[in-house]
Automatic annotation (TrEMBL):
NCBIfam families: rSAM_QueE_gams. Residues 31-222 form the Radical SAM core domain. GO terms for molecular function: lyase activity. Its EC number is 4.3.99.3. InterPro entries: 7-CO-7-deazaguanine_synth-like, Aldolase_TIM, rSAM, rSAM_QueE_gams, rSAM_sf. This is 7-carboxy-7-deazaguanine synthase. Catalyzes the complex heterocyclic radical-mediated conversion of 6-carboxy-5,6,7,8-tetrahydropterin (CPH4) to 7-carboxy-7-deazaguanine (CDG), a step common to the biosynthetic pathways of all 7-deazapurine-containing compounds. S-adenosyl-L-methionine binds at Y50, C51, D52, G85. The lineage of its organism: Bacteria, Pseudomonadati, Pseudomonadota, Gammaproteobacteria, Cellvibrionales. It holds the Pfam family Radical_SAM. Mg(2+) binds at T53. It comes from Congregibacter variabilis. Keywords: 4Fe-4S, Iron, Iron-sulfur, Lyase, Magnesium, Metal-binding, Queuosine biosynthesis, S-adenosyl-L-methionine. Binds 1 [4Fe-4S] cluster. The cluster is coordinated with 3 cysteines and an exchangeable S-adenosyl-L-methionine. Binds 1 S-adenosyl-L-methionine per subunit. Belongs to the radical SAM superfamily. 7-carboxy-7-deazaguanine synthase family.
Length: 226
């Protein structure tokens, strides 16, 4: 018992730089609309042209994993989403994910697809981006991540224009992505591509993907903390 308690407290004492922890409705992905606690980690090595979380690039506060999970528990959530920035840029994101799973939450991870996901706890639902050409960061996609995706994970393309759409459609075929994950999400880049236009392209091509609108932007106009 003593050895286990020591190991547990060693994990709880590890630290992460955190931009914000807040309770809101999930704005994206398969659990859209469900009350969720978000843990936003600070920092990202990418600079997508449409980034809407630049405030998470710098600053933040160092917190222990124990303090993070205490704050999460205060909201008594069923769902916890670890996001950023790019959460996997901080190595201690991995023990945080495991700790949250151990505490019984349904945990998801929003990641850019640029960092390896091989060591992410298998209980975590990975929501992995493939960056399109118009993001400016398509060269950062780590295609080695695809083999670590399971039927419990989700793939997301943020689509800025017709060229992005064609690129994403090609990747679906080239990498046989649809059967690999539970959902492929096509999300129109906010104020760059009309949602209706993307909807019509998806229908015209009969693509087996889910059109995703960002609920938090419709409800709160993207204010931090939502
Ligand atoms: S990966 Fe996400 S947080 Fe990082 S620059 Fe791109 S959109 Fe912003």
């Amino acid at each position: 018992m003593g050895a286990i308690a020591t190991a547990d407290s060693a994990v709880a004492d590890q630290t992460l730089r955190i931009t914000e922890i807040f309770y809101s409705l999930q704005g994206e992905a398969r659990t859209v609309g469900l009350p969720t606690v978000f843990v936003r980690l600070t920092g990202c090595p990418l600079r997508c042209l449409y980034c809407d979380t630049e405030y998470a690039f710098h600053g933040g506060d160092m917190m222990t994993l124990g303090d993070i999970t205490t704050q999460v528990a205060q909201h008594r959530p069923a769902y916890v989403t670890v996001t950023g920035g790019e959460p996997l840029a901080q190595p201690n994101c991995l023990p945080l994910l495991t700790l949250l799973c151990d505490q019984g939450y349904e945990v998801s991870l929003e990641t850019s697809g640029a960092m390896p996901v091989a060591d992410v706890d298998p209980r975590v639902v990975k929501v992995l981006d493939l960056k399109t050409p118009a993001s400016g960061e398509a060269g950062r996609n780590d295609y080695g991540n695809i083999e670590y995706l399971t039927g419990n994970d989700q793939l997301k393309f943020v689509i800025c224009d017709r060229n992005d759409y064609e690129w994403a459609r090609f990747k679906l075929d080239e990498l046989a992505l649809v059967p690999r994950v539970s959902d492929v999400l096509f999300s129109p880049s906010h104020e760059q591509l009309a949602p209706r236009q993307l909807a019509e392209w998806i229908l015209a091509d009969r693509l087996p993907v889910r059109l995703q609108l960002q609920l938090h932007k419709l409800l709160w106009d993207d204010a931090p903390g939502h």
